[in-house]
Amino acid sequence: MKPVPLATPDTQAWLDRIDAGELTVPRCTACASFFLYPRSSCPRCGARTVELVPAAGTGVLLSFVVNHRAPAGFEAPYALGVVALAEGPHLTGVVRTDRPELLEVDAPVRVAFEERGERRVVCFDLEEATA
């Protein structure tokens, strides 16, 4: 079985929204900074006024690795990428593609969700695949 994230008090609301099929990004209401991972205080200014705001769901692939030896639950080859979201923060997830050898840095991607039991996780599709 593929792994799923375990919620903490700081990540529970964020993961609940992912489970509902909505990607959000934490934003500080004091300095307007977006950031990830979700936490109760802003990593930029330290304010404790953080809200979850809807994310555009788009970004670009900053880096990736194609895994040819898969752990339990995964089928090789598969790609794991670091994506710069439109809002700025970086998020890691599986990049779903039948042709991982064609992936390129700066490729546009769109958020998608993969069901894993009672939980969903964020993954990414190449933008061309969804157009």
List keywords for this structure.
131 residues, OB fold (Dihydrolipoamide Acetyltransferase, E2P), 5-stranded mixed beta barrel, 2 helices, 7 strands, 9% helix, 40% strand
Task: Characterise the protein shown here.
The chain is mainly beta and 131 residues long. The protein has one domain: OB fold (Dihydrolipoamide Acetyltransferase, E2P) (Beta Barrel), CATH 2.40.50. 9% of the residues lie in helices and 40% in strands. The protein is built from 2 helices and 7 strands; from the N terminus they run H-E-E-E-E-E-E-E-H. A 5-stranded mixed barrel has the order 3-4-5-7-6. It has a two-stranded antiparallel sheet with strand order 1-2. Strand 6 (108-116) and strand 7 (119-126) form a beta hairpin. The longest helix is centred in the N-terminal third of the chain and has 8 residues, at 12-19. The protein is globular, with a radius of gyration of 15 Å.
Overall CATH architecture: Beta Barrel
Unreliable segments of 5+ consecutive residues:
none
> What share of residues is helical?
under 10%
Tally of separate helices: 2
Tell me the overall shape.
globular
Overall residue-averaged pLDDT value: 95
Beta strand %: 35-45%
CATH topology description = OB fold (Dihydrolipoamide Acetyltransferase, E2P)
Euclidean distance between termini CA atoms: 31 Å
How large is the radius of gyration?
Answer: 15 Å
Q: Order of strands across the biggest sheet?
A: 3-4-5-7-6
Q: Which CATH C-level class is it?
A: Mainly Beta
Task: List the domain count as a whole number.
Answer: 1
Going by helix content, strand content and strand pairing, the class is: mainly beta
Order of helices and strands: HEEEEEEEH
Number of strands: 7
What composes the largest sheet?
5 strands, mixed, barrel
